[in-house]
Amino acid sequence: MITKEFISKIHNSADKYPDSIFSEKGKMYTCVNSFAYHLFRKHPEIFTSLDGLFVDGMSMCWMIKLLWKHNIPRLSFDMTGMAVDLFDRLNNNDETIYFVGARQTEIENTIRQITIAYPRMNIKGFRNGYFDSEQQRNDEIRKIVDSNPDFTVVGMGIVLQEKFALDLKKAGYKGIVFTCGGFLHQTTENINYYPDWINRYNLRAFYRLYKEKGLFKRLYYVLLEFPVLFTYDSVKTKLLNPGK
Q: What's the whole-model pTM score?
């Protein structure tokens, strides 16, 4: 992971949000957090290929401010961040959107919730994020390219969703892609996953630990590995590039 380039891409993405981000076609964006950082270190080719990065998580925002002196806003693709801005936009214009992710019953329920909240949004299609074969995955990519929605939202989990976004671009997709992590399965019962008081005190990570099974194993990466790795990468980069 080249930390300087990583920080630069995050800073530039935040500066362009929302106008350029929602209008420059053919771009692929993802969100990173303390858990995802160790995965991006293992897959730098994905990070360097994406057009923009946003920070999903206050701990990463704080670390960037501490070590790089940048005030980066938290911009996750959910109803506390980018999803609200994009959905408001689509509810008031003729642009289209396509969703891929979660399990079939989950994506159906989520689309129902989105439709209730944004009745004028033009949803061009949706599909679950599980494929029985590479051919089925390629067929879905071709379907999206051919239907050419203005926006595509992909929620398959870190790495898988980014690879899908990049493969869409390679296949000729001209729209804008956002990855969304767990947003599509979090929104099955209510468009607003987090209670207001959880948002107010930035306790979203702890709320997810409480609500979603299997997330406690992430604590090691979030509380221990991320601060160490990010500090190491930042200091190493500054030592190799003094004055920059």
A: 0.90
